[in-house]
Design brief:
By secondary structure, this protein is an alpha+beta fold. It has one domain: Recoverin, domain 1 (Orthogonal Bundle), CATH 1.10.238. Helices cover about 50% and strands about 15% of the residues. The protein is built from 4 helices and 3 strands. Strands 1-3-2 form a 3-stranded antiparallel beta sheet. β2 and β3 form a beta hairpin.
Length: about 80
């Protein structure tokens, strides 16, 4: 089995059947981050990696974004 098929199988096994896919627009709205910051965090390994849906379309798993948001430190004022 090719490596890409194995990766797809692993992704499918770890996602819930009712998992939401969020576009960049939704991820930006939910996190308050800019596009460039999101991609910089991905490059640093500190933000969930997007899934490729097609040649020019990507999305993020909502549960991964929510988990990332919950991992952020709370503001203590």
């Amino acid at each position: 089995m090719p490596e890409s098929d194995l990766l797809r199988s692993a992704d499918a096994a770890t996602t819930q059947p009712d998992e939401e896919l969020w576009s960049l627009k939704i991820v930006r709205a939910k996190t308050g981050l800019s596009r460039s910051t999101i991609y910089a965090y991905i490059a640093d390994g500190t933000f969930p990696v997007q899934r490729r849906l097609g040649l020019r379309r990507v999305a993020w798993l909502s549960t991964e974004i929510k988990a990332w948001m919950m991992s952020r430190p709370r503001h203590s004022g």
